[in-house]
Design brief:
By secondary structure, this protein is of the alpha/beta class. The chain is about 35% helix and about 15% strand.
């Protein structure tokens, strides 16, 4: 009789081609995503005279170098010659090697970790790779998805397989149900604050528990997206009826009898009852509140009602030094109340929080209100942008004073001019608050879309629950 297995173990074992040593395997890769930053891998292929092994399993779209403003002119309207060249090179490689490509003018274009699930390319039970750390996002559908480097990118393109060391397993159970104003972003920030940015190194996380099961697919994607910020190799949620309802009918999802066969397989994937994990972590959803970061690591997160912690309370001398350096950069003193800290800019978007539900949550706070600081929103894909415009969300953002931009990664990584000036504080829905992440000297505070919208209105870090309660009073 087969021993009980976790979701990860089922996927891993199904994809092993060969093994070497105690913990390394050659894995078959089902889907591989490439952006314009993959030019190194394609250049290596050309130099060695190789072809893409299985082009039907490769998908490309520009996301990092595409501008979020002035998109009406398409590729021809791009003033940055180098960025335009990289985007053109990706399109050229798609034509030469025969893989599907969603270019800058394609309605399916967007951040790869948004369009993968959106198009139904990301499916339960698959192995998924991309040359970007936030590939973990795709694990929300019940896949093993992970980021890879340039040389590995070339290996997958040339062979559609990859040598990998088998990671350990961790299950994070979020028990109970979330309170009003508490979102998926708050859950994952609370998790990282609890276990730290190295807390899941060497592990794949499976997120479980009633709070996770109650999340929509888009909310699960937010949680899995930030698994990498805890050091994990990937993040996963077992597929269920929520997953299947989300995928059914999407362009790349199985159709007809193929759908029925896929569904039968997908239902076998959830972790067996008695399966063992190398580590277990439990959080109570009832204890969670809207979160914001106060420092320069995602683990530097606390409830909005808290104060900036004292370095003297750090668990080690190294941690104390790290906290002191973070506070020096971020310009905050220990003991400062988080609520009320003035901010200079607001950004809503990214592969973490650029989906339609994120925009709806922010728009619900902004409706009938005006922003007090420069603010902009960048939908995660062209499809999200069009859907938001069909719902009238863009009109709410614009009426409030937000800039309504195109899809892309710019504001997350300070590219294409989408940066925050030195010394300015940005309330951001992105995934990283590292030094210089949004621009040299920029100070980033991570939070949910609703919290970012509240900060835009008040010009300071604000508990969105107070704003919503005030708004809903007769």
């Amino acid at each position: 009789m087969t021993a009980p297995r976790t979701l990860f173990e089922k996927i891993w074992q199904r994809h092993v081609i060969a093994t070497r040593g105690a913990d390394e395997a050659l894995l078959s890769i089902d889907s591989h995503f490439v952006a314009e930053g993959s030019f190194h891998a394609f250049g290596a292929l050309a130099k060695e005279g190789r072809k893409v092994r299985k082009p039907r399993q490769v998908f490309g779209s520009p996301d990092h170098f595409v501008p979020t403003v002035g998109r009406d002119g398409g590729l021809a309207g791009m003033g940055d010659v180098e960025a335009r060249g990289l985007i053109e090179y990706l399109a050229q490689n798609a034509r030469e090697y025969g893989f599907d490509h969603f270019g800058i003018d394609d309605e399916r274009q967007g951040i790869l970790h948004v369009i993968g699930p959106e198009l139904g390319i990301s499916q339960p039970g698959l192995t998924i790779t991309c040359g970007d750390s936030h590939t973990a996002t795709h694990g929300a559908v019940g896949a093993f998805a992970f980021g890879i480097g340039a040389s590995q990118n070339k290996q997958v393109l040339a062979t559609q397989c990859l040598w990998q060391k088998c990671p350990k397993t961790m299950r994070i159970n979020v028990e109970g149900s979330l309170g009003p104003g508490v979102t998926a972003k708050d859950v994952v920030l609370a998790i990282i604050a609890k276990i730290g940015v190295t807390g899941a190194v060497g592990h794949v996380i499976e997120y479980a528990g009633p709070a996770l099961r109650g999340m929509t697919m888009e909310q699960r994607m937010t949680v899995c997206n930030m698994s990498i910020e805890a050091g994990a190799r990937g993040g996963m949620v077992a597929p269920d009826d929520t997953t299947f309802a989300y995928l059914e009918g999407r362009p790349y999802a199985p159709q007809g009898e193929h759908w029925n066969k896929a569904l039968a397989y997908w239902r076998t994937l959830p972790t067996d009852t008695d399966a063992k994990f190398d580590r277990e972590v439990v959080l109570d959803a009832a204890d969670l509140a809207p979160m914001v970061t106060w420092g320069t690591l995602p683990e530097h997160a606390a409830p909005i009602s808290a104060t900036v912690p004292l370095p003297a309370t750090a668990s080690s001398p190294d941690k104390r030094t790290q906290m002191e350096d973070a506070l020096r950069y971020i310009g905050l003193a220990p003991g400062t109340a988080l609520e009320g800290i003035k901010i200079d800019r607001v950004f809503i978007g990214s592969c973490t929080n650029g989906r339609i539900e994120d925009l709806r949550a922010a728009a619900a706070v902004l409706k009938g209100r005006k922003v007090s600081v420069p603010s902009w929103v960048s939908p995660g894909s062209s499809a999200v942008k069009h859907a938001a415009e069909a719902e009238g969300l863009d009109r709410i953002f614009r009426a409030a004073g937000f800039e309504w931009r195109g899809s892309g990664c710019s504001s997350c990584v300070a590219m294409n001019g989408d940066s925050v000036r030195s010394g300015e504080r940005c309330a951001s829905t992105s995934n990283r608050n590292f030094e210089g992440r949004q621009g040299k000297g920029a100070r980033t505070h991570l939070m949910s879309p609703a919290m970012a919208a509240a900060a835009a209105v008040t010009g300071k870090l604000t508990d969105v629950r107070k704003l919503v309660v005030t708004k809903d009073r007769p």
